[in-house]
Amino acid sequence: MTVSIALFDLGHVVLDWEPSRLYTKIFDDAVARDYFLGEICTMTWHTRHDAGTRFADNAADLIAKHPDYEAEIRAWGTRWMEMFDGYIDGTAELIERLDARQVPLYALSNMPSDPWPEMLAHFDLLQRFRHVVVSGDLKMIKPDPAIYRHALTMMGHPAPETVLFIDDRETNIAAADALGFATHHFTGAAGLEAALQAHSLL
Fold this sequence. Notes:
The chain is an alpha/beta fold. The protein is built from 11 helices and 7 strands. A 5-stranded parallel β-sheet has the order 5-4-1-6-7, sandwiched between helices.
């Protein structure tokens, strides 16, 4: 079947998100910052946000274990937008070109529910997507096959082979492959442009 739909991950594919961007402002010392991100506010801890845990609840549990870092832990939620620096180089332009060609655009992102309304208002490019599946709203995360099936439902039940799923994590790509999606492992805009052209989307 011909690919006709583009399904994007957001973080590190569309949006330039890095927690260290915020914590470089908070910690004067890089070693202290890296310790905090590697041992306290870890990606494993953050995944609970993506799976539907509210920022305040997740912070409370961690503060109970690390009371000396209360302010720094709370900053993850209260200063969330400071982790972003616009869009990944080149991706916004590709999305605009796809939209100009009336390619149906959707997104499937492991993303907390709490800040999503603010993100949607802040990043104009997100308005190009016909629907964004936010994992925190559903309380399930990639690579759970159920969230991919939900995305297909929100797209109107297309055949998976007609959907090009674009993600920077190989585990998420493998899950989509197993369900029959066309896939592209994102490593940069140049490679994505080539994939879009190969599928005649550009």
